Amino acid sequence: MREISSGGVVVRQKEGVWWMAAIELPAGPPVELDSKKRVVRRKQKAVLCLPKGLVDPGEKALDAALREVREETGVNGALVTKLADIKYVYVRSWGNQERVFKIVSFYLLRYESGSIDNVAQEMRIEVARAKWVPLEDAQKLLAYRGEKQMAKQALQYVLSHAGEFAER
Fold first, then answer.
1. Is residue 168 part of a domain?
2. In a domain, 103, yes or no
3. pTM for this predicted structure
4. Structural domains in the chain (count)
5. What residues have CB less than 8 Å from 96, skipping those under 6 apart?
6. Is residue 91 a contact partner of residue 97, using CB atoms and an 8 Å limit?
7. Spatial CA neighbour of 87 closest among 100, 109, 102
8. Would you say residue 158 lies in a domain?
9. What is the dihedral of CA 144, 105, 64, 95, to 10 degrees?
10. Predicted confidence (pLDDT) per residue in 30-50, tens digit
């Protein structure tokens, strides 16, 4: 089984500090989402991660990343650069416990508009809350190794390309 997903590291600079949009996943047992039998896995305790999700049939990875960021955080971002693809295997905690090979394409996005945590009620099954966290602290705060690496790469990029980012 393979899954292709896409996500974003949305950054903004405010008063000289770089911030990143992150989401907190709800805690508890897995919940079935829809008639396609998609399931939201949940941890025993809330975890902080990057917004991401499955690329829909016919959708481009970047478009999926922009959509997932908007749906899961309430903010809109503009492409800066592709960061990387992360690959891993996980075992589904529901159904037949199937092993899944997953590829997630991550993009660095510059905040454009929107309000953090302005998330539709139907998304609350996937996102407990969205919040801005200091980009400098993201590697310590995020739950997953690959996502920690994406935050590190984002920080390195914005520090080395600071002139390209207007304060918003």
1. no
2. yes
3. 0.87
4. 1
5. none
6. yes
7. 102
8. yes
9. -50
10. 556 655 555 655 556 678 999
